Amino acid sequence: MQNDKNLLLIFTYAPAGLGHLRVTDALYRGLPKNAQPIVLGSHDKEITFLHRLASASIFGRRIMEYFQYGVLEEIFTAVYRKFLRLRTKKVYEQLETLIEEHINPPKKVLIVSTHFSLAHQIAEIKNKLSAEKKVQIILAVQVTDDSPQKIWYVDNADVIFVPSIYTKKTLLDYGERRKLAKVHFEVVSYPVSPTLARTDDFFYRKRKEALSVGSQDQIKIVLPVSGAAVDLLFYEKMIANLLFESSRFHFYIISKEASFTKKFLEVLKGKTNVSIFSSKEDREVVRLYEKVYLENPIAVEISKPSEQAFKALIPFSAVGGSVLLFTNPVGRQEEDNLNFLIHHKLIPNKEKNEILINELLKEKEEIDLERIKKIALGLRGFCLPFGSLRSFRCVVNALTTGLFSKMAEAEKPKGAEDVKQTEVSADGVGKFWEKVEELLGKSG
User: Fold this and answer.
1) Which residues contact 357 (CB under 8 A, 6 or more apart)?
2) Element (H, E) at 255
3) What's the Cα-to-Cα distance from 179 to each of 12, 76, 156, 174, 409, rounded to whole Å?
4) What domains are defined for the chain?
5) Quick check: 208 and 408 in contact, CB under 8 A?
6) What are the tens digits of pLDDT across the range 336-353?
């Protein structure tokens, strides 16, 4: 790929949260050094509106969740798919310009799409554009959650990458039942950042030292604010309680600067042991997230179980190998992501997670240490309870009892030893490009 001057590589993403952009960035970082891709973003206001409606408003969330299951999902998928495929004029013109103005007239155009909206639009115009510009167009779609929502079935795509056999099978069944054009699916481990997946002995040692009982080292905690700015009050209270508990905690807030995050960032600005990394640009927010991890041995991350959940594929011994604490899931895709982690023994199942939380909510002297260590040993994290005060107590007790320390001793996640490597490898990016190279080779 790196020496093919006749190939034009285009990444596309949509402004529906930061997740799609994080995946795009991870795939971008895994490219050969000499590859020079172009990034094309969608500016559809409808996509942004739907994402905000589903994430930031309880009422809107419930409405959207109704359309993520059963008959209503079938109706929504059919209508939205039709809506997207009727609005292709702007996308066509953008791609046409990129092909015409490329310094070397391309014979092949590889388009990597990390959001279904642009994927459907490109699939609709792909054949026409190919015929008019006399180029071969290959569309590769990367599903950004392990959630087999039917809108991800993009007929006329050349390949759809999914994180699990479960999602592949469910989408294939849907396409067959709806008599849609057949699509080739590849199961490849979720593409987490190669930078964060890199093994680093210094970070591993510093992380273990910070979490060990009796240590006086600073405990560095990352709090990435989601693109929809969910859980801000929860974060604010958690930070206040933990800082009141101990000056050892240091928080790194990574957030987009927007109207819905302004108040939150102003409250935290200037606080001791709180560092804020923010930008008005989505791509810069993604870059800042990696910058924080590269410059600090982060011990704990508290985040939504969105695409961040797949950092559980990264071992503790890697740059990004922090203990993962997940807030309450929002929407079907986050529930599905947690189920993926449970299935692969990366976090405890719901029953064991409840036992773990109930123990951690007790007074320290009453906690059954052997019981909680047996549950959490080898896991990458667990789910926090509802409410900032209860979550605060769980974090403090997990630290002071040595639970975090015990978890961080494992170099590899428990699930990595007994499940298929196609789903749990930390090198999903490398595997993605291997499959793409094969596809390009077959296409001639």
Assistant:
1) 382, 383, 384, 385, 390, 394
2) strand 249-256
3) 27, 17, 13, 8, 50
4) 7-192+427-442 (3.40.50), 201-420 (3.40.50.2000)
5) yes
6) 999 999 999 999 999 999
